[in-house]
Design brief:
The structure is a homodimer of 581-residue chains. Chain A is built from 17 helices and 23 strands. The first copy, chain A, is α+β, with helices and mostly antiparallel strands and 581 residues long. Chain A has 3 domains: 92 residues, Nucleic acid-binding proteins (OB fold (Dihydrolipoamide Acetyltransferase, E2P)), CATH 2.40.50; 262 residues, Bira Bifunctional Protein, Domain 2 (BirA Bifunctional Protein, domain 2, 2-Layer Sandwich), CATH 3.30.930; 122 residues, GAD-like domain (Gyrase A, domain 2), CATH 3.30.1360. In chain A, the strands form 5 sheets. Chain A has an 8-stranded mixed beta sheet, with helices on both faces. In chain A, strands 1-2-3-5-4 form a 5-stranded mixed β-barrel. In chain A, strand 2 and strand 3 form a beta hairpin. The longest helix of chain A has 23 residues. The radius of gyration of chain A is 30 Å and the shape is globular. The first copy, chain A, starts with 18 loop residues before the first strand and ends with a strand. The model of chain A has no long low-confidence stretch (mean pLDDT 94). The interface between A and B is large, with 123 and 123 residues.
Chain lengths: 581, 581
């Protein structure tokens, strides 16, 4: 006998008078005199069951003994409800039960299994399996499953092969820390867990696989901070015989496809913005372009007027707030407080309201006359009725702060429409950054990233001017992926290694087997990786990746439910040939 | 400018006179007087390029300088070949080249990139990226990608969600050894890598996800032996509100779908054989049912005739070889040698040829007269012209040996048709095995496996008679998957734990958080896991999983290409708070 003939999301008027079998969890019980109503739930929905004392007194009694989260099996007849609930798909009907079996009882859950629960973070992490019952989390997990499916389906249609790469690999002395795995059969030796399949996907290109992808777990032993996970999932891709245009076209179509399939939203065009322009106009390399409010550069109209703060500042930038002349003192004070928060780090903010009558009002009226303020207005393209907020200071931190202010303003003005999806490519990143501390060049993406063809000459004399064939995709203000065209020419690779300060010996130690592979006919190739956890969160308009991971770790890298990491037996340590300090 | 307009597998007569761009690796160069032919290869196929000294002497010279595995880009015109090669899809045409660019040179590979290579195992493992260029391996990798895709596609159609479970979990003291991962942020503590997502998929059922699947890496730190890998991939599935029939139907359809999609072979029916019958008839619980030759039990006709070997043996079993009366002495001797190999472990084999004239001829003619031999014939259902091979000894090892002999005979008689696919379910496994050494019961599948409903009473008095709701699928003589309906009732679970000798404290230590989860409304559930590496190998008629894994480890768990496991820095050890013994 099968457990059920229908699920709890599918019954409607077309089933009237049919006998059905249902299984699920007791969501709610209401006793109304001679009637008991029980809502049962599964991941498909909720169905209302009705027990009538007149029709079946025994069952009626049994139903009254049910508790929240009991697992039950029922059989009954689909009937019309007295009061129809238009809000739920099964709201037209209820099931008059003629058979009830308790499959399993439940203790009272430590928090309510409702969309808005009363459970705190720690409690919900400890009982993650109960938190996973809540509809908002279930929707996230279902969304993730669908994003993964449509990713695979699209990439397969485009000729990509799904190829698995190993998890027990070799530790590399580069970048973030590897998690390592002691080898029992080779005592004193270790495997490492991959931070990404980067070298393997490049090897697969050398092997001729042409179009590779994988949705794959990666591991980084970072000092934990909010919203980072020691294990995370990448959509990892690589292609051969491609230039930058091929990659951008292929993968903007992937993102379009995913958003269309899971959100029903069609995206027309994915703009391409150069890194330098993105920093200039948005104060960030992951701009939210759902709204305008670009950064205005005001050095020319602000400096040299005797106002010391401006005159001593490297950079003076502003954001025009449409209609901002109406802002109250309180609203402005609140923004000033916000900008002074340590994570923003500004010492203050200057505002100027461009009033409709043309009499401008600023917080620095003492230093600037109306004519000068009018030049701010015209330089920034503001209209009368708008307000400009101005930050001044050294270039890097001021640009960063104005980018954050832009986002904060958009939040407050509700300009970040969660139903809008605006991906954007950021291109032409610098190949190198110069680290003042170590006096060394660092690869901004990774050491295999190819310079732009036109810039190769600059490597010799002006490496910081060299642009890279690298690209990031930002979606609604969050970086969701990035990659590059790789160097596949040995001479050029050596030149880059030299600039990065690797000797031949070091380069060989770090990247030996990949460099050796490159000697046997490496094709031109490039790729990209998207963060799946992040992508799902951004698509859902959420800031936190944790609710899109079935069993996440907390900010100290612990799984509270499992109580791990934990001690292991001395025997196990002995077998592995290791001691604890 | 794009690198290519077509790949090397797609050109045919319909492209005649078209100008195309191609990229690929130089497979072969033939110089014929004023003509040079170059085969270029990519994963789609091979295209013949032609360079004519009269038409373009410069290019002709350049082409002669190409080497094996050079990566080139060409442009040219599709023309008809002089001598058509019907064996290859592009065999009707060739490309007369007007532009050639060497994208990358190649050293001479350490072995030939041909279907039959001259490279030994170790060399091919060290240069795995070159071995992966060979067509047979590429076909395996492509097959694997397709098997994974059709698995996902089918399961999604059936309402399954793909849900990821964590890799950094808790070490359990059960079964095979865990790989462990020292935690840097929680010094002295360890994560473990999962041997399977078993507990997580059961938790997901408690969470109400109803139909879960995942194609997922699992890890087992076993003492390595041939054809085992420390990391392997499972198709892992679990369902709620199901009985055994629901699972068998769902997953035999999965296997049918996969084999149909990747091999074009339709499978009608998947037979279900009880464990005891499989052992009786095939000498194994993973029978190859592509051919008959069932095991014949001959105690009744062999014993008590004064032949000491038979009289002192627990079990006398035979295999009828159709037409075997024609076997030569040499063929029989070779089988006798085979049966005495240590891994089979028999001391000898008795044969009897049932000759067409009715005069039977056996290796024990001294002890049995023709009438008695005739009773062997009729008992075993042999025809005149057949031969029976008989093994005798203790039950367990003799049954095992006859099962192996059955397979060996089928190999020699070419009865194992690689184009036939015969999956079979084995059901009704015993719930427990009794270990004579420890005098303890062991769970044959795992401790959460449910007993058959009718057998629950037997738990008290005769546990070895209890059958389990467990099932394995065998395909062509190899186990490809297995699973069970799980216990979801706490009382029954405790009874089983007690029989397995776990105290309540031990049970709680080992399975605490799962048992706790079961207190909050666990639904009836069950599942299955298929070995993806093995499944791909069996579908391809291969015995070895290694060629279906892109980057496998060798039998000592080493990756020769990466040279791992390997030493790590002292600093890294210090960070982790561990010492090497």
């Amino acid at each position: 006998m099968s457990y059920r003939t229908v699920n709890n999301g599918e019954l409607n008027k077309s089933y009237l008078n049919k006998v059905v079998k249902l299984c699920g969890w007791v969501q709610k019980i209401r006793n109304l005199g001679g009637m008991t109503f029980v809502d049962i739930r599964d991941r498909y929905g909720i169905t209302q069951l009705v027990f009538n004392v007149d029709k079946n007194p025994t069952l009626f009694e049994e139903a009254r003994k049910l508790g929240r989260e009991y697992v039950i099996k029922v059989e009954g007849t689909v009937i019309l409800r007295n009061s129809i609930n238009r809000k739920m798909p099964t709201g037209e009907i209820e099931v008059e039960v003629n058979y009830l079996s308790i499959l399993n009882k439940s203790k009272t859950p430590p928090f309510t299994i409702e969309n808005e629960t009363d459970g705190g973070d720690d409690l919900r992490m400890k009982y993650r399996y109960l938190d996973l019952r809540r509809e908002p989390i279930q929707n996230n997990i279902i969304l993730r499953s669908e994003v993964a499916f449509h990713t695979r389906n699209y990439l397969r249609t485009q000729g990509f092969l799904e190829i698995e790469t190993p998890f027990l690999i070799k530790s590399t002395p580069e970048g973030a820390r590897d998690f390592v795995v002691p080898s029992r059969l080779n005592k004193g030796s270790f495997y490492a867990l991959p931070q990404s399949p980067q070298t393997f996907k490049q090897l697969l290109m050398v092997s001729g696989y042409d179009k590779y992808y994988q949705i794959v777990k990666c591991f980084r032993d970072e000092d934990f901070r909010a919203d980072r996970q020691p294990e995370f999932t990448q959509i990892d891709c690589e292609m051969s015989f491609v230039e930058i245009e091929d990659i951008l076209n292929m993968f903007e179509n992937l993102i379009k496809e995913i958003i269309y399939k899971v959100k029903g939203v069609k995206i027309d065009k994915v703009p391409r913005i150069k890194y330098s322009e993105s920093i200039r106009d948005y104060g960030t390399d992951k701009p939210d372009i759902r709204f305008e409010m670009k950064v205005k550069h005001l050095n020319s109209v602000c400096k040299g007027k005797g106002f010391n703060l401006f005159d001593s500042s490297e950079t003076i930038v502003g954001i025009v707030v449409p209609g901002g002349a109406e802002f109250s003192r309180k609203q402005i004070d609140s923004l000033t407080d916000w900008i002074k928060k340590p994570q923003i780090g500004c010492s203050g903010m200057i505002f100027c309201k461009f009033n409709t009558e043309g009499r401008h009002k600023s917080s620095v009226d003492k230093f600037f006359n109306n004519e000068q303020l009018e030049s701010w207005r015209s330089e920034s393209g503001a209209n009368n009725g708008d307000m400009i907020l101005i930050l001044a200071g050294d270039e890097k931190s001021t640009i960063n702060a104005i980018g954050l202010l832009r986002i904060e303003l958009a939040e407050r003005l509700k300009l970040r429409d969660p139903n809008l999806f605006k991906p954007v490519w950021i291109t032409d990143f610098p190949l190198f950054e110069f680290d003042e501390k170590s006096k060394k060049y660092h690869a901004m993406h990774h050491p295999f990233t190819s310079p732009n063809d036109d810039d190769v000459e600059l490597l010799k004399n002006d490496p910081l001017k060299v642009k890279a064939k690298a690209y990031d995709m930002a979606l609604n203000g969050t970086e969701i992926g990035g990659g590059s065209i790789r160097i596949f020419n040995k001479g050029l690779q050596n030149e880059v290694f030299n600039l990065l300060g690797f000797s031949d010996v070091e380069a060989n130690e770090k990247f030996g087997f990949l460099m050796e592979a490159f000697e046997y006919g490496a094709p031109p190739h490039g790729g990209i990786a998207f963060g799946l956890d992040r992508l799902c969160a951004v698509i859902s308009g959420s800031d936190s990746i944790r609710d899109f991971i079935p069993f996440p770790k907390n900010n100290s890298g612990k799984d509270i439910m499992l109580d791990t990491p934990s001690k292991i037996d001395d025997d196990q340590l002995k077998d592995l040939g290791i001691n604890i300090d």
